[in-house]
Amino acid sequence: MKLKPTLIAGAIGLIFIGGLSLSSYFEEKGSDEEKQLDRESEEKLLLEDPTSISGNSNFLELSSTYGIDLKTLTDAFLLEDTDPALFETRDLEHYYQNIDENIEIGNEAVQAFIAIHNDLDFEFIDIYLPKEAIDILKSLGKISPAEDAYFLDHTVSNIEVDISDVELEVEKENNLTGNTTLQDLINMGLTQESIESVTGIAIENTQILLRDYAEDNDLSYGEVKGDIEVLLSSLN
Amino acid sequence: MTFKKLNIRRITQIFFFALVALLAFNHTLSETGQSLPWIAEVSLHAICPFGGIVTLYSLATVGDYIKKIHESSLMILGISTALAFLFGPVLCGWICPLGSIQEWIGLLGKKIFKRKYNTFIPKDIDKPLRYIRYFTLAWVIYVTAKSATLVFLNVDPYFALMNFYSGEVTFSAFIVLGLTLGGSLFVERPWCKYACPYGAYLGLFNKIRIFKLKRHDNSCIHCTKCDRVCPMNIDISHTNVINDPQCISCMECTSDKACPIPNTLNFEISKGN
Fold first, then answer.
1. Which site among A1, A4, A6, A8 would you substitute to test the B interface, given the most B Cβ atoms closer than 10 Å to its Cβ?
2. SS3 assignment, position A2
3. Which of A36, A60, A110, B32 has its CA at 20 to 30 Å from residue B156's CA atom?
4. With a CB-CB cutoff of 8 Å, which residues 94-123 of chain B face chain A?
């Protein structure tokens, strides 16, 4: 078989373009597989290591990921009247009203609950759980004697809850978030006087968070936020 | 010009020269925040097959590429090796921009010196000089493996040619480029013949390539036109199967170009000598 120059040129083009295209295809495939492996590794890590649960995990996700009945979770953390798909673990800190300021029940408490429930390794340092959570774990036979002994001094009873102080996920899509400062509100079009008229408290520093402004002056953040939202909507 | 008279190889050379120049230019532009639309922002290192060779040691030992070398270099190394296995060093004769520009400057040399062109170096000096490129190949691979850096970049005329405006080219590389381009006025493809490490590697495939350059002695009239047009000064008229490592598979000697007798000098699948 004889080769003509045209055939050589064609072969060069075909092999080059074909080779580079294949290379791009396999690079992309490899990249997708790498991402898939990363996701699988991440999921595996999550399942084996409850400390990898982040504060923006909601209770519906946790129920699904760890195979824990959703009602078990919501009952344990007194979330019966909330939407578990919107309630994130970090929201617990603002949800519980009458807990001693030296005690924190938040994301780590949820990590601990899941660790005990699913028999995963966990280091219990300054971890407190609601009494309801401990009772549920005992009723399910999940708590070990050592854990039971630990939680004798680390259980909080008679917790009061207030959903209005919690900024649920869907609300974060609105302009007002937990990071909104008084200056942000002024930038949105409100005046310092209008904010003061709603809260009745003089503003000395516009750089503080709205949440801190409310809580520092013994006001309900939820109520102040609601009033501010009314003011903002009147601007539109 | 009819389709038959179209110089397909010249067109292919111009295409790849323009492509590589454009890619190199666009990469330099992209570093200033501007780049041409629709053109990839790849560095010259990413499209240089020789980068694939020098990084093999590093890849084999520590599992990582030499700095500045990319996976694409290995891909292009693979493609050019596959082409060499089939047809010999077609990358040299059809694609390499440095080879092409030497050839084009050689056209000027041919116009100036006519038949004397490409005959200035006596054969007894030319022959041993042809082995220098193997030492270059071995040296580059060794020093790159030892230092894990692209040492060759300091003298690489290909990089100098495509990046002369970028400020990244060393003085020594400019000297080598100058000697290469200036030398092309007197000798055809001086870099390819005497110094190119990648040509040294690809040329080895001429011993085993699937499609061989074959001269049919029974129809050959020994006019030696093939010898005269060969850019690499190979003694074609006295060889039946041209497997010289210097052959760049340009096909200038074949019956499709210089050889006046049809089917006498062909690129074909050969079952033996």
1. A8
2. strand
3. B32
4. 94-95
Q: For A128-132, A185-189, B241-245, which range has the lowest pLDDT when averaged over its residues? A: A185-189
8-state DSSP, A129: E
Backbone angles phi, psi at A196, to 5 degrees: -65, -35
Cβ-contact B100, B169 below 8 angstroms: no
B261: Cβ contacts below 8 Å, ≥ 6 apart: B219, B220, B221, B255
* Cα angle A131-A132-A137, degrees, rounded to a multiple of 5: 100
How many beta-carbon contacts under 8 Å exist across A and B? 56
Q: Which residues, at least 6 apart from A80, have a Cβ–Cβ distance to it below 8 Å?
A: A74
| H-assigned helices in B36-169 | 49-54, 56-61, 71-87, 90, 97-113, 123-129, 132-147, 157-163
Q: How distant, in Å, are the alpha carbons of A80, A103, A154, A156 from that of A59? A: 12, 21, 22, 20
Closest residue on chain B to A22 (Cα): B75
DSSP for A28-70, please give it.
HHHHHHHHHHHHHHHHHHHHH-GGG--TT-BHHHHHHHHT--H
Can you tell me which residue has the tokens 């059809």? Answer: B94
- Taking phi over 0 as left and psi of -120 to 50 as alpha, with beta for the rest, B226 belongs to alpha
Which has the closest alpha carbon to B265: B255, B257, B250, B256? B255
Angle at which helices A221-235 and A192-199 pack, to 10 degrees?
140
More confident residue, A37 or B98: B98
Taking only the tens place, the pLDDT of each residue in A141-188 is 999 999 999 999 999 998 888 877 666 554 444 457 667 888 888 878
- Tell me the backbone φ, ψ of residue A223, rounded to 5 degrees: -70, -45
Secondary structure class of B199 (helix, strand, coil): helix
Instruction: Give the nearest partner residue to A8 out of B72, B79, B90, using CB atoms.
Output: B90
Structure tokens at A45: 């890590």
Report yes or no: B186 and B228 within 8 Å, Cβ to Cβ.
no
Tell me the CA distances in angstroms from A143 to A154, B61, B188, one per residue in order: 14, 51, 86
- CA nearest neighbour of A165 among A102, A226, A104, A117: A226
Range picked from A192-206, B157-171, B182-196 for highest mean pLDDT: B182-196
